Every structure is written in structure tokens, then in C-alpha cells.
């Protein structure tokens, strides 16, 4: 039996360690654009991923449907009760929208960008990183469909993450449960105007940390947290989650709220990529790099 | 021809790891058990046992790098770890006769070793914030079991196939 690590092998091991460190350093830098080999691999693999993922999702969806049938009667009852209010709410909504438009006209605000306006790009999830360290999802829309890095990604239930890199025909979405703080989201409490930042995620409790809330703010359990649109990347009003618990930070200067995500991040098939219509800094002045939202 | 087939098998597993296995993961059904499929690692170990070390290293690095590109944000970690694990464990072929029990055990050990290496590198760069005891308690056992089951299922067909690859490459 030859010696376990001869001199030559030791040198190769050390050299590959150096290459590893260089590669890690290279990829930790936040790059927005994919290099062409990356794009090539992503798009080729993406094509195969569609073939495998669609049948799997259909089968999984079938089992879910069986589950759903059991609940259908109960749900139907609840939905019917909701529906009675729906017509009324719709009329009210129309009236309020009209009033709002009129008032804006009087104030000469009509041409100002609307923070909550956005365009939707529906997309399919075609792959997902399987080790739990990376919270990445691949979707089947890319630059050819108008997807750009930093766009918000939502499901009907709420916000789930943002586009990290866009390839030609597929793009990589980083979920807000990624622990590396890559997703700092400017957020606010719906209704009351309490602003703060979503920073970080606690995987053991499954909560997002809503930080930098003024210490005097009256924030309560059960309130809805939405994006504020002030980070200049995401539109306003995308639901993020419900407040679960409120504490003060270690210095007692600001409050920290634990927010339970509204969207189920384990069960992703159809997502919507959201393009904000009000200008983003990246679009307004191309030479300046946009702030992280 | 056999090499192309081997490449296709590995590519298939690479796709399955990120699509079918994430759809049918325990999380999808609402259980929080982290079962991580490392089928590429298991197959590369099979190559190391039944073909030779150089081939295992080659495929380990190629597919490790593809995993890095497609499923992670940091390049090089899986390429390095899969290559290193397969290389170290390939020395066991000299000490043991590779029957199904030994292979099962070594595959579970290899996957745990890979998980440990990736965990330590990711902890260094701040991507993994699970505590070590939680990692060992909650993440390693289900992962090892899942990949052990995979190793047992593919053992006979894959061994037969790989032995033909070996004769193929020795004739060249």
C-alpha cells in the first residue's frame, strides 16, 4: 500500500485548496450578471429540469388534490360566506379608487410614480437547491422574457424572495429564508405607518426578523407586514408575513419583531416575478449601482 | 460508448437531485426532516470502488462543479469536497472486499463525511448557522439513511454496469 499522502499528492491537495479559496472569494462577491459559461450551464440544465420537474409536480399535486377534496365542503361554506361581502367590497373599492384619482388630480400628483404599481411575469419553478444551506430556486423565465436581477418574486400568498441572477432562459431566485442576509427588505406594518427592515431569518423558529422599528412604535401580534417600496427595488404593499412576537434589541434602542412568512416556501410551483413600474435607481442612472432593497 | 452512458447516468442523477427529490421531500408534505439527496456522491463512490480512482476523481470534480454552479451560490465547494471524499475513501478498496454491506456502510459514511466538509466550509464563510450538535443530531442521520437506501437500491445494477466500464477502459 503506498503512503496515504505522498509529497506530490500533498502539493496537489494544497494547490486545490488555494483554487478553492480563490473560487469562493470570487463567488462571494455579489455579481449581478452571469458569465456566459454560467448562462450556458444554467439554460441547458434548466431545459432538462423542466422535463423532470413537471411530471413530479403533477404527481405531488395529485396527492394534494386528494387532500383538498376532503376539505372542499368546509372550504366551500367559508368561501360562500366571504362571497356575500365581496360585491359590497368591490363597489367600495371602485368608489375609493375613483375618489383617490380625483384627489390626486387636484393635487397634481397624477404623473408621480406610483410605488405600488407593478407588472407581473408568471413563471414556473423548475429546480431547487437540495441542500438546505442554499435557499435557491430556479425559474423558467430569463432575460429574454424581461427578467432582470433584483426583481421581487411572489406567490399568491406573499413575498418569497428576489431574482439573484438572470440567465437567458432561466433565472436564479434567492429566497428570503437564506440566512446570509442577502435579502434586506424595506418593510412596514400595514395600516399603521411603522417602517423597518427585514434582516435575516431564524430557521429554527421559521421566522423573519423585522428590525430597526422605532422603540415607541405600537406594533402588535397578528399585524401584517408588507414591503414598503422605499428600498427603491420592490413595489409597495407585497405581503410578507404576520407579526408573531415583539422584543427590543440588545441595546434597547429599537424593537425587533418576529414575522412568520405568509407564503409557504416549501411548496413552490407557480411564482410571479414582479417588475416595479416606478423607476428604480438602476434604471434611472445606469452608471450608479442601485442600493440593495 | 460506456463512458457516455456513465456521463448520462450521472447527469440524470444530477437533475433528479434538484427536481424530483425536492418535490418529494418530507418538507413538501409538511415534515421538517432535512433529508439531503447526495446521489452524485454515492455514484462517484461506486465508480471509485468498481472502476478506478482517477475516473472517480474526474467525475466527482466535474459534477461537483456543476452542483456548485446550478444549486449553490458559492463555486468550488462541492467540487472540492466530493473529489476529496471519493479520493480518500477509494483507498478502502485495498482493505475490504466490496460486498453490499461494506458498500452500504461506506456510502453512508462518505455522505456524512461530505456533509461535514461542506458544513465546515459553509460555516467558515457564514452560510451555515446551524449549531454543530443540531447538525449532527437532526441533519446527518436522515441524510445518511436516505443515501444508504439509494446505495442499496442501485447496488446490483450499477456494479454490473461499472464492471463493464472497467473492462472497457482497460482494453483501450
TrEMBL record, chain A:
Matching entries from PANTHER family are given as:
CELL SHAPE-DETERMINING PROTEIN MREC (PTHR34138:SF1)
Q: The organism sits in which domain of life? A: Bacteria
Q: Which InterPro entries match?
A: Cell/Rod_1, Cell/Rod_MreC_2, MreC, MreC_beta-barrel_core
Recorded source organism is Scopulibacillus darangshiensis
- Protein name, UniProt field: Cell shape-determining protein MreC
UniProt similarity note:
Belongs to the MreC family.
GO CC: one term?
Answer: plasma membrane
Q: Which residues form a coiled coil?
A: 69-106
The residue ranges of the Rod shape-determining protein MreC beta-barrel core domain are 125-275
> What's any GO biological process attached to this entry?
regulation of cell shape
Q: Which Pfam families match?
A: MreC (PF04085)
Q: Which keywords has UniProt assigned to this entry?
A: Cell shape, Coiled coil
Protein role = Involved in formation and maintenance of cell shape.
From TrEMBL, chain B:
Any single Pfam family the record assigns to this protein: MreD
Tell me the leader sequence span.
none
Q: What are the record's GO terms for cellular component?
A: plasma membrane
Localization in the cell: Cell membrane
Instruction: Mark the transmembrane ranges.
Output: 28-51, 63-88, 100-119, 140-158
Looking at the keywords, is Cell membrane present? yes
Keywords, alphabetical: Cell membrane, Cell shape, Membrane, Transmembrane, Transmembrane helix
Q: Which domain of life is it from?
A: Bacteria
The membrane topology term of the UniProt record is:
Multi-pass membrane protein
Swiss-Prot/TrEMBL GO biological process terms: regulation of cell shape
The answer on whether this UniProt entry bears the keyword Repressor reads no
What family is this protein classified in? Belongs to the MreD family.
Protein known as: Rod shape-determining protein MreD
